[in-house]
Write a structure and sequence with these properties.
Strands 2, 4, 5, 6, 9, 10 and 11 form a seven-stranded mixed beta sheet that branches. Strands 1-3-8-7 form a four-stranded antiparallel beta sheet, with no helix packed on it. By secondary structure, the chain is mostly beta strands. It has no helices and eleven strands.
């Protein structure tokens, strides 16, 4: 059974930093691409960042230069370092794993990030 458990969300002032973590189980983590999505109130879920099994990363234009996705295969964990936070970054952030065998998407429960002064 695949489980993705996010942590690290919270309330932060504009310009601050947060690091999200997603611990994965039930998948062969080291070969699986991973991603972070977010969903703001009243908006559709959007892709924030992706990382391949080989460490190649890709970002939404809105977070380029501010967010960094990384992975630790020894810990089965993917991270999202978020710097220079803006109020528009406020959202529930979700960890995603897509099975390389079935293309089924797996999701964590989400972690709330609120950027406000």
């Amino acid at each position: 059974q695949v489980q993705l458990v996010e942590s690290g969300g919270g309330l932060m002032q504009p310009g601050g930093s947060l690091r999200l973590a997603c611990a994965a189980s039930g998948i062969i983590f080291r070969i699986n691409p991973m991603a972070w999505y977010r969903q703001a109130p009243g908006k559709q879920r959007e892709l924030v960042a992706t990382i391949t099994s080989g460490g190649i990363t890709n970002y939404a234009d809105s977070v380029k230069g501010r967010f960094t996705i990384s992975r630790d295969n020894a810990k089965n964990t993917v991270y999202l370092q978020m710097n220079s936070l803006k109020p528009e970054d406020t959202a529930v952030y979700y960890c995603n794993a897509r099975s390389i065998y079935t293309s089924k998407d797996y999701w964590g429960q989400g972690t709330q990030v609120t950027v406000s002064s």
